[in-house]
Design brief:
alpha/beta, six-stranded mixed sheet, 127 residues, 28% strand
Length: 127
């Protein structure tokens, strides 16, 4: 995994979600939230990827996984979701989308979305 991606995630993405209406794959302070029990295997694979690539931040961290219209949506909570991403940050997140597609979701398309603590999309990474 690109060390720049690890650094980017540790700087801008770090928080936990509000609410408890999700199914969860937990490992310490890291949680993958998802609504459809049919994607438990993929949520587990995503959690494993995050751990194996040292993407887990210090402290509590939640991400969400959804499967909508044949696209895997990974929502990352931003510490300050109103700040626009730089070109370099967008480029790194597109690289992460591509890596997730290849290594976790068997070539299926992935969309990374930056969200607030309620997993409401604030910014979508265009790939």
């Amino acid at each position: 995994m690109n060390t720049k991606i690890v650094l980017l995630l540790s700087l801008i993405l770090f928080a936990s979600c509000e609410g408890d209406s999700y199914h969860k794959v937990k490992g310490g302070d890291f949680t993958v939230n998802y609504t459809d029990r049919g994607i438990t295997e993929e949520a587990t694979a995503l959690a494993r990827y995050w751990k194996e690539n040292n993407l887990i931040a210090e402290g509590k961290q939640d991400i969400a996984l959804f499967f909508v219209d044949k696209i895997w949506i990974v929502k990352l909570i931003a510490g300050n979701p109103k700040e626009p991403l730089t070109f370099e940050e967008r480029k790194l997140l597109i690289e992460l989308e591509n890596d997730l597609s290849e290594k976790v979701f068997h070539g299926d398309p992935v969309s990374i979305q930056i969200s607030n603590s309620k997993f409401e999309t604030v910014y979508e990474i265009d790939s």
